[in-house]
Amino acid sequence: MLLSCSAKRMVPEGKYLLHNTAVRIQGKPQGLNRSDLTALISQKPNRHFLGTRPQLWVYYQTINRTDSRFWRWINEQIGRPPVYLDELATKNSAEQMSRYLANVGFFYAHVDFDISLSRNQAAVGFQVDPSWAYRINSVNFSITDTALASSIDLISQQSLVKAGSVFNVYTLDNERDRITEYLRNQGYYFFGRDFILFEADTNLRNQAVDITLRINSMSSDKHSADNLNRTVPHRRYIIRKVNLFPATQPLSMAKSGVQDTVVLNFRANKKGEPHTMSLFFNGNPRIRPAIFTQLVQLKNNDLYSINKVRQTYRGLANLRIYQGTRISFDTVPDEIPDSDPDARWIDCNISMQRTQSMAYGFDVEGTNSGGDLGLRGSLHFTHKNLFNGAEVFRFRINGGIEAQELAAGISGSDEDKIINIFNTTELGADVNLSIPRFLSPVRLRKFRQEYQPKTNLNFGYSAQNRVNYSRTLTRAAFGYDWMASNTISHILTPVNLNSVKVTPSPEFQKILDNETNQRIREQYSNHLILGMKYSFIFNNQNINKANDFFYFRLNLETSGNLVSLFNKTSLVSNKGDYSEFFGIRYAQFVRSDLDFRYYRLLGKYNRLVFRTIMGVGLPHGNSRDMPFERSFYAGGSNGMRGWSFRELGPGTYQGDTDNIEKIGDVQLEASVEYRFPVYSFLNGAFFADLGNIWTLRDVDYLPGGEFRFDRFYKQLGFDAGVGFRFDFSFFIFRIDAAVPLHDPSKPENDRWVLDKLQLRDSNWQIGIGYPF
């Protein structure tokens, strides 16, 4: 309240701080939302927080100190200028509402406003009397082009403009786009939405509108004898030739110097019509021409289709050997197709700009895993055209060393802590092959043509040597990924194999034999994960425009279910409590998790980012607990930053964290982060995290860790902190400092620790890139 009162006293004489705005609608008219009208108000009050305006207060306090660089930064980045009442802007907002109401069918709506002044503040109220809504009485067509009229009639049942519905200009615009999209997929290359007009004839007595859809003909390029422009019917265009230039330098349609031509003859399917495609190049094209027959959906003797143009762009974008593609069309004025004398020919030209085939690099980075410092490096090689089919081959050798801090109970030492410099080493290799084609025993021709899926094969092997044990990990996966639209993508991995083999030292094996915590014992045991994964991803970010966007990812994974079908065969051996597949105990579970993010743009460089994570893993059959690699954890540099890596949870568990990395079967987490520029490459952030992990069942070695609906909300950890991000364009180095404010591991009445915080309670997190 002190901040609020102080801000009011700083309002200049004759000015009124806009306190609030409100929209009141008379009655409850169908289809009219208050939020749509509120969005048209141009002046928005300064933001409130618990009855105060802290950003406005900061602005007032620093506006006279902007000669200093520091205070100018505070004023511009943290403060917000006051919003004073502007009667002209208020009047314009009322007029905008009236125009909007007319566009959605309320032709005789009336919008008025009143202004209430109190001391230095103003409140604006808009009164909306929508009167009545005009409804569509009939929909008629006036199309002189008979061929075009026949095409429109085929899709008339799917029209968005229907008799009986409320008149809406925006629905008419959507109908215009729908018709245009349909016609441009039916060969009408030159057709555009501007040819479509809607005429509205209103009837005041019946509050009804008669709609007439008109489609104008095209203007002729030639003048008549009386020097007047004449119109001609819209033409459909059939593709005569498809020409590819797979090595255009630079990206243009220049065809000079072309020496060699390859003509491809193929069929889209066994019973389909034959097609031809021509490739023009100099010397060796260094790519198998046949791969284009699957990726290029534009074929000769087919009608022009804007949808197939998009599919072709999407398919050629999968060829990483090319860094740019351009598709253009040339009309053929002197020839007429025999199959349709009313149509005309068009030639399709596809030019592609080639990039370097091979690349290699070396990366080195420092690591911090729960306070254990280390160093990792990798040497990687990439070939973007391995078998001359635009296959992307990646090979990476990676290694690392780490100084692991060990608890006495694990190491066997009598000392409280033992730190051996670089006592942990890891060496491994990964191989990935991405094929820009759909490799499957099932043809799925329509799916392949529509979505242009890629086939991925992955193999990996790594060996880890630690003080108490050595471990080898073998990975293999086969799957597909494809884009369903510009915002939706899918990843399907029907074969996903992970094999972990652990060899404890004799001393460590004795400790494990006496360990009552089953999760710790299984963490250091051999196991096999063999199953499948699926991911659905939605991302509407526009990389060419700074705006608000959403990101959503849903992962589903199963393991061991297919193997369990062979339990009674020689492939699987029964060991009493569990079974082994080829001598290794296989894991059996179902796991799902989702990640939702919302990026809100505040000004040109500031963002407010929200993230929610939820996940659950259900072990069953051959597994009593989730495998260590598929369990959930909380804490670290990317979430619940007030705790170290895998330090929080599960639930209210209070056990010593030095001898166990805490994991669980359930995860709930939410984060909010305000990001802002500081100076040059330095950016800052304020953030808060809320969440925890739990087990699905009550286990005696993790007391308080079970998830229960009647108490989980009391067991959420809460932290807040500040971060610094060093943006060097090619990578972002991040330092975050957070303190736990609500610690679920403490007694229930002592979990809020605001009054006990000290600087040493801060957890420092180091990361590469943003946390989300």
Task: Please provide a written account of the structure.
This protein is mainly beta and 772 residues long. Strands 14-15-16-19-20-21-22-23-24-28-29-30-31-32-33-34 form a 16-stranded antiparallel β-sheet. The chain has a five-stranded mixed β-sheet with strand order 10-11-9-13-12, with helices on one face. Strand 25 (572-574) and strand 26 form a beta hairpin. The two termini are 35 Å apart. The model is unreliable at 250-255 and 407-419 (pLDDT under 50).
Secondary-structure content class: mainly beta
Largest sheet: 16 strands, antiparallel
| Count, helices | 13
Mass-distribution shape: globular
Which percent range fits the helix content? 10-25%
Q: End-to-end span in angstroms?
A: 35 Å
Uncertain stretches of 5 or more adjacent residues: 250-255, 407-419
CA gyration radius, whole angstroms: 33 Å
For the secondary structure, the number of strands is 34
Q: Give the strand order of the largest sheet, numbering strands 1, 2, ... along the chain.
A: 14-15-16-19-20-21-22-23-24-28-29-30-31-32-33-34
Mean of residue pLDDT?
Answer: 85
Strand content: 35-45%
